[in-house]
UniProtKB/TrEMBL annotation:
This is ROK family protein. PANTHER family: ROK (REPRESSOR, ORF, KINASE) FAMILY, TRANSCRIPTIONAL REGULATOR, XYLR-RELATED. GO terms for biological process: D-xylose metabolic process. It comes from the Bacteria. Transcriptional repressor of xylose-utilizing enzymes. Belongs to the ROK (NagC/XylR) family. Keywords: Carbohydrate metabolism, Kinase, Transferase, Xylose metabolism. Pfam families: HTH_24, ROK. It comes from [Clostridium] leptum DSM 753. Gene3D superfamilies: 3.30.420.40, Winged helix-like DNA-binding domain superfamily/Winged helix DNA-binding domain. GO terms for molecular function: kinase activity.
Length: 384
């Protein structure tokens, strides 16, 4: 599971917790890791537990609705044992990705999969109308899968702003002009626990999900806005003032393009997805189709984009010496251009002839919204 820096702190298990509770937890987590289901005999063997203990704990997990009988287990011969698997939708969490022109709402299950999502064009405003609209969106999404409201763990709201450590207030929000906005006002029409998340850190958390290989890395969100998440010891670092990873405002070109932050030459105005989509009627997919079709204007813009991006990734690698993962709406298209980007990054590297530290994101489905929902899932699973 993922570390504590990003998710809400959960009370530590008391030392007096009984062995029974530990076995309950061990069995659930073992079943959780086995997507095809696992038999009672396998649980006994792998955890070194007795038949009565495993039987009793399985009955408890079945009664709690957390585990189900998944039918016959795979067998190499003889009588096929019953297999048990987790109930993926025993609990669900909602994530929102809130932007100037649209919002996206997703529903995530206990495996961290997005089971449904909805994107809606609706201009942001700090108004009762807007809060009512996102409240409706959350309820409609839950009702669309007939999920019992008791199963909803909470709603995470991914926003393009910097959030206080308690996740209750926006303390920097120039993009939406919502500095000082509180989670309380946003969640006025949402009858579940709600918290804010910074968009890039939420997306970085989604990337971490189920990736035990990622100990240290830097995740770059290349979407309508540029942000980052610094991953250390398998957790998203917040930094002293929750501003860690804000690479969108690293100076790349002295006295360069104006940035919304009020400075100039930041990474943001060079590597936002808008730089590309503005050349294709606001349609990023159309930009890449034209680029593949050989459009010279798109080619020139893309070359400049990759050139600046190669500077940023090289700077990050020089500073942190760790993998750099490219995500967000542009990251989804980057796989086919990785050769070109690696070559540019390699040319800037003072120490190595390779840029193998660069990788495309693996979590591609609505990473901001999903990443805002996943801390609720993570916390729930850890407490079982
Ligand atoms: Zn800036």
């Amino acid at each position: 599971m993922i570390g504590t820096a990003f998710r809400k702190k959960v009370p530590a298990m008391r030392m007096s917790s009984s062995i029974k509770k530990i076995n309950h937890s061990k069995i659930y987590h073992m079943i959780y890791r086995e997507s095809k289901g696992v038999s009672k005999q396998e649980i006994m063997r792998r955890l070194g537990l007795s038949l009565p203990t495993v039987t009793q704990k399985l009955e408890e997990l079945l009664a709690e609705g957390l585990v189900q009988d998944a039918g016959a287990a795979d067998s190499t011969g003889g009588r096929r044992a019953r297999a048990f698997s987790i109930v993926k939708d025993a609990r669900l969490a909602v994530g929102l990705d809130i932007n100037q022109d649209y919002y996206t709402a997703v529903l995530v299950d206990l495996l961290g999969s997005v089971i449904c999502s909805k994107r809606q064009r609706f201009p942001f405003s700090q108004s009762d109308d807007y809060y009512r609209q996102i409240g409706l969106a959350v309820l409609e999404l839950i009702d669309s899968v007939n999920a019992d409201h008791q199963r909803i763990l909470g709603v995470g709201m991914g926003v393009p702003g910097l959030i206080t450590k308690d996740r209750e207030r926006v303390f920097y929000g120039k993009i939406l002009g919502f500095e000082g906005a509180t989670c309380r006002e946003f969640s006025k029409y949402i009858p579940f626990p709600c918290v804010f998340f910074n968009d890039a850190k939420a997306a970085g958390f989604a990337e971490l999900w189920n990736r035990s290989d990622l100990t240290d890395a830097f995740y770059i969100l290349l979407s309508q806005h540029v942000g980052g998440a610094m991953i250390r010891n398998h957790q998203v670092e917040l930094g002293e003032n929750t501003r860690a990873g804000e690479i969108g405002h690293m100076t790349m070109i002295p006295f360069g393009k104006a940035c919304y932050c009020g400075r100039s030459g930041c990474l943001e105005p060079y590597c936002s997805s808008a730089v590309l989509s503005e050349l294709a009627e606001g349609d990023l997919d159309l930009f890449f189709r034209s680029l593949r079709g050989g459009d010279p204007v798109k080619k020139s813009a893309w070359d400049e984009y990759l050139n600046i991006l190669s500077m940023a990734v090289n700077n990050i690698n020089m500073l942190l010496d760790c993998p750099v993962i490219l995500g967000g709406s542009v990251g989804v298209y980057l796989e086919e251009f990785m050769g070109q980007l690696r070559s540019l990054a390699r040319d800037r590297n003072s120490f190595s002839d390779s840029a193998d530290y660069l990788a495309c994101c693996q979590y591609k489905v609505e990473p901001i919204a999903a990443g805002a929902a996943l801390p609720f899932i993570d916390e729930f699973i850890r407490t079982i």
